[in-house]
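Figure 3 (text version): structure tokens given as input.
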């Protein structure tokens, strides 16, 4: 009975504590309702902060994705290459015989639409799983004492026409037959029944010493011509397909246009990723006739000597501002590529400095002095190297009949950088080529400015033997193919060149029949 009236343990203390707490809150001036409002506002503020951070993260991710999409050019569509040509029997035959001309070029999905990545992979890696074709190295002594070399690869199967056909190939700047993209193409051409002769640019092979104070230039055709003459003499029955890559495209076109005799026994010519005009590709900065690179004023030279050239290439000359976007500009990182190529050229020149700059056992060329060597070390562009080393004249003393010096003056003795680029470019020779000519460029080539593409476009619109092929993607000598990430060993470029050559070989065999058919059709009309 008495136990029922006893309070529960601790109940009095809890009640007292609540009252004491309320009293303390009152004494301190804090009402219970105000404390709740403060706690609620604190909770709301802390809940908004994570939302702000999440928004920043989302914006950062969106920005990164946008940059990736823009850099990789993922929104760019895939399409067949743009073709510029005149309607003719040859063009119609090529469109039927070369499916790659009208078929969609599909680069690797993730990175293949970026011209920079395609170019970088070509420059660094060359090709994927490149084969190693077996060839014989040939040595030819030039009139000036230089030793030209080329590698000869025999066909590994019969040609589709049963004929003897040889591809004479000129690689890109400072390249040779041991480069992976050359090996891949040669192996594919061999399998299709072509004999291949690949020029090694003078001074490009690290294990071949120069034997005269001269190395390759943009447009020197002596070594290539010597190789072609050797092939013609050694294989009297063979016909030639001329192929040039990048700088090699300039050399082969210049060689064919220099003389009509150079086009004898030539079935066709293919040029891939060349710039057509070194003068327009380089940005010439002039202060006076003798001083370059020291003035803020910039002047670009335009000269067309031949009236035919002026008519053909007038669309290019109508807009001077387009030509100012040059190899010395930073747009599309061309200045950076220029620096890398100049650095590679410096390494090659310095590896042969004993021959080029003279030593105790060889007469030192007057133009290549210690001052020129110092300028070479500090050069950051191809223009500076060309002006200080490649085009410099060597003034021989009166009565000096040294053949080496005479030849050296002939190829390097230009009065100005402008003259050097004019004389070394194929621009003034393109209209003299009469064999079928395929000019291939990529619209996203970071080394060839889009204004230079007006040259092959204008030529293709006026000459029936010329076709210009311009895919959207491919970079500079990239043209990789693949599904998503990994490229295939064989590129679109390799397939196109061989497919075009096959079509021309068939055209040469069926050309009389095609002509008779066309005449009969036109007579019926």
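Below: residues designed for each position.
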């Amino acid at each position: 009975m008495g136990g029922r009236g006893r309070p529960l343990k601790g109940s009095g203390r809890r009640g007292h504590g609540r009252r004491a707490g309320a009293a303390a809150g009152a004494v301190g001036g804090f009402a219970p309702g105000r404390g709740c409002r403060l706690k609620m506002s604190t909770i709301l503020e802390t809940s908004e902060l994570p939302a702000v951070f999440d928004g920043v993260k989302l914006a950062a991710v969106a920005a990164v994705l946008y940059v990736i999409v823009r850099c990789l050019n993922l929104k760019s569509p895939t399409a067949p290459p743009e073709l510029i040509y005149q309607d003719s029997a040859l063009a119609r035959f090529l469109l039927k015989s070369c499916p790659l001309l009208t078929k969609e070029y599909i680069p690797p999905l993730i990175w293949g639409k970026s011209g920079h990545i395609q170019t970088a992979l070509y420059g660094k890696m060359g090709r994927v799983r490149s084969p190693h074709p077996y060839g014989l190295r040939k040595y030819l002594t030039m009139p000036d004492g230089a030793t030209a070399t080329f590698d000869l690869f025999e066909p590994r199967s019969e040609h589709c026409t049963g004929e003897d056909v040889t591809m004479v190939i000129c690689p890109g700047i400072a390249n040779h037959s041991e480069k992976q993209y050359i090996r891949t193409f040669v192996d594919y051409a061999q399998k299709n029944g072509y004999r291949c002769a690949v020029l090694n640019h003078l001074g490009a092979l690290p294990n071949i010493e120069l034997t005269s104070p001269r190395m390759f230039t943009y447009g020197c055709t002596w070594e290539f011509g010597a190789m072609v003459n050797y092939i013609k003499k050694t294989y009297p029955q063979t016909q030639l397909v001329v192929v040039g890559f990048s700088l090699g495209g300039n050399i082969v076109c210049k060689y064919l246009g220099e003389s009509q005799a150079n086009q004898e026994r030539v079935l066709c010519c293919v040029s891939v990723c060349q710039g057509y005009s070194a003068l327009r590709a380089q940005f010439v900065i002039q202060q006076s006739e003798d001083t370059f690179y020291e003035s803020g004023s910039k002047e670009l030279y335009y000269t067309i000597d031949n009236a035919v050239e002026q008519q053909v290439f007038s669309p290019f000359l109508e807009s001077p501002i387009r030509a100012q976007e040059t190899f010395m500009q930073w747009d599309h990182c061309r200045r950076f590529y220029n620096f890398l190529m100049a650095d590679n050229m410096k390494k090659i020149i310095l590896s042969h400095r004993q021959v080029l700059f003279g030593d105790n056992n060889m007469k030192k060329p007057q133009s290549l002095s210690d001052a020129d060597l110092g300028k070479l070390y500090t050069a950051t562009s191809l223009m500076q190297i060309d002006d200080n080393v490649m085009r410099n004249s060597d003034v021989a003393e009166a009565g000096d009949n040294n053949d080496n010096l005479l030849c050296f003056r002939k190829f390097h003795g230009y009065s100005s950088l402008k003259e050097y680029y004019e004389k070394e470019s194929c621009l003034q020779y393109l209209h003299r080529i009469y064999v079928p000519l395929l000019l291939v460029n990529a619209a996203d080539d970071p080394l060839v400015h889009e204004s230079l593409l007006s040259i092959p476009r204008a030529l293709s619109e006026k000459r029936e033997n010329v076709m210009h092929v311009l895919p959207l993607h491919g970079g500079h000598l990239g043209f990789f193919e693949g599904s998503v990430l990994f490229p295939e060993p064989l590129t679109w470029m390799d397939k196109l060149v061989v497919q075009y050559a096959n079509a021309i070989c068939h055209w040469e065999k069926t050309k009389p029949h095609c002509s008779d058919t066309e005449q009969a059709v036109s007579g019926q009309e």
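The chain has a mean pLDDT of 77.
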